Amino acid sequence: MISNDSLDGHISGMVERYSSLFTLPSHKKIIIWLCILCVFCGMLTIFPLQPTSSGLALGLIFGTAFFSVTSLADLIIYHGFMKSDPVFNLRRCSALSLFSCLMWFGLILLGSLISIFLGNTIVWIKLFLLGFSVVLILRLLVFSTTSFADRKGVFISSILQPAVCTISLFFMGSVIDGLSADFFLLSAIFILIPVLAISLFTFLVNRVGKRNLGIDSLSLFKAFMANWTENLNAPLEVFLDRLGCERDVKLSMLAFRTTGEKIKAVMVVPALHSGPFRNVGSSLLPYTIQDALENKLQCVISVPHGLAGHELDLSSQLQSERVVKKTLDSVDFSPFSSEATPLVRTSENGASASCQVFGDCALFTLTLSPETMEDLPQELAFTIDSEAKKRGLSSAIVIDAHNSVDGSFNLKEALEPLRKTAFSSLGEALSCERVPFKIGTSKIVPEEFGLKEGMGLGGITILTIKVGGQTTAYVTIDGNNMISGLREEILSALREVGIADGEVLTTDTHSVNGIVLTERGYHPVGAAMDNAKLISYVRQAAMNALGNLEFAEVSWRTETISDVKVIGEKQIGTLSLLAEKTAREAKKLAFSLFSATGVLLVALLVLL
Questions:
Q1: Between the CA of residue 332 and those of 266, 291, 297, 407, 605, what are the distances in Å?
Q2: Residue 538 confidence (pLDDT)
Q3: Which residues of 8-19 are buried (b: 16+ CB within 10 A; e: fewer)?
């Protein structure tokens, strides 16, 4: 089984490594910096060769020409080849040119200093050519690994800016020796070598993906980039659909209705995983289910985390829409029961389970808080459901509370205590009398907590259940796990308003993943929030729910959705490691291949 930390850590690492490609200043600022760089460095590189006012003016002309043709090239590249590219907008084209010019002018300045020392301006031309080749390598590398343009578009977009910048040389006649035929021969060689080097690099890097998944590594990387830079899910989901496998998945629901047969609340527990990250696959599934049912039923919807791991990530939003549609088609609830038991909690070896029986359906919550817990396997839910049926119940709904993270998680050690405490709580709940109950509901979406802070669009929902003299609460927060100890603080605050027990649940939404640069790749609930403020929201929601308590009936059902495409355990495991393998191979190749290319280029400059 693949843990959150395994996949999310790889995703976070990739985001961090390539964040400079999508955390750029505005286009206006980039153009200003490009202009300053070209003009200033143009004067700085020419003036040492001709330390007069005319040399300064010539440097100004050289730098201005460099900036002008670079800006023109960026416009041609964008409008001619990158207009429909999901990653390379005009701002990123200009940013790449800014980085290119920065490297180029560094070599040109070095050429000026060496030319003065040797008294030979041919060195200036050779370093200009070396800069040309270095920039071409950079641009070929960036465009070929991130742009969706075809090979022709990639080549022209890569070579156009450095090629047109050679026009500025024709303003240098009074400073450097005249351009000979050797210059144009060298230029052709210095174009051919970078093209061959990048072609070999991309071939070898792509081979990593073909060996592991049968796909080009760089094509997959481009799909990731389209999602990280422009929030586009479709390119990546094409790969996930291709890698996915079909599974039958389950979706369990508890519906509560009050006088007049109005549905007051529905708790939906999908046996699916809300991943892999951002808006890809089923990452938004808890909120999309919640939003769709709220619009249809006009009531409070809670969507806590079922028992499932990354192997049950849906492969695309299209598959998520199938699940949502099936959910909407399944809300014709019947029959209803008016009886429930109190909530019973048992604990063993750090594991804690609550069980509350509604009619003939047992509702379980499982937690290891304050110790770390991650995704629990479906097999545990099957075991608990089977035990509930052996004891005369028709169904069991098992929730992974997913409410504490602080360090590593040992699944093997956790399974048996969780199983035992679930069975124990079931036995105690079944020994309790089933009596009429009341339900109160509330929902709050805090404005100051968003995806970067670790809270999804679903906000905070709460269902309060009163059975006899006991009042309990199921608090569901749309987030991915929770910092250790926060669950206990929330329950303590709820006791202050008259709620004896309950559970704090998270949806395990992965809409918060791959957005912030942290070790985990996301902020668990409470890690980047004002926790006092968060607790005050939960407390307020609880008081609202207590204020609308009323007698209710409950209905339950479990639906099977056939042939849903999920990513699959083997595929998600391979995918979670492919990024690291590709990055590792790319680093080794870049060091060896580009070092050899640099040595070859310098050798050619010395010999020719």
A1: 12, 18, 11, 43, 79
A2: 97
A3: bbbbbbbbeebe
Residue 496: count of CB within 10 angstroms of its CB: 9
Question: Are 220 and 12 contacting, i.e. CB atoms less than 8 angstroms apart?
Answer: no
> Residue 595 in 3-state DSSP?
helix
Q: What is the phi/psi pair of residue 564, to 5°?
A: -85, 135
The span from the CA of 148 to the CA of 154, in Å, is 9
- Which SS3 state, helix, strand or coil, does residue 333 take? coil
Contacts of 435 (CB under 8 A, 6+ apart): 339, 340, 341, 467, 468
pLDDT digit string (tens) for 485-528? 999 999 999 999 999 999 999 999 999 988 887 777 899 999 99
Measured distance CA(34)–CA(24) in Å, rounded: 14
CA–CA separation, 382 and 398 (whole Å): 9
Of 394, 399, 404, the residue nearest 422 (C-alpha): 399
Peptide bond before residue 304 is cis, with ω within 30 degrees of 0: no
Q: For the whole model, what pTM was predicted?
A: 0.86
pLDDT at 1: 46
Query: pLDDT digit string (tens) for 204-242?
Result: 999 988 887 788 888 888 888 888 878 889 988 988 888
Query: Using an 8 Å Cβ cutoff, are 370 and 336 in contact?
Result: no
Say how far apart CA 574 and CA 580 lie, in whole Å: 10
Per-residue pLDDT tens digits for 96-149 = 999 999 999 998 888 888 888 887 777 888 888 889 999 999 999 999 988 999
579 CB contacts (<8 Å, ≥6 apart)? Answer: 10, 11, 13, 14, 221, 224
The helix or strand, by DSSP H or E, that contains position 601, with its residue range, turns out to be helix 569-607
Domain extent listing, the chain: 4-203, 245-567
- Cβ pair 265, 256 in contact under 8 A: yes
SS3 letters across 123-149: HHHHHHHHHHHHHHHHHHHHHHHHCCC
| Residue among 129, 130, 161 nearest 143 (CA) | 161
Low-confidence ranges of the chain (pLDDT < 50): 1-2, 19-21, 174, 178
| DSSP per residue, 279-302 | TSTTTTHHHHHHHHHHHHH-SEEE
H or E, element range at 436 = strand 435-444
Residue 244 per-residue DSSP state: -
| Cα 174 versus chain centre, distance | 55
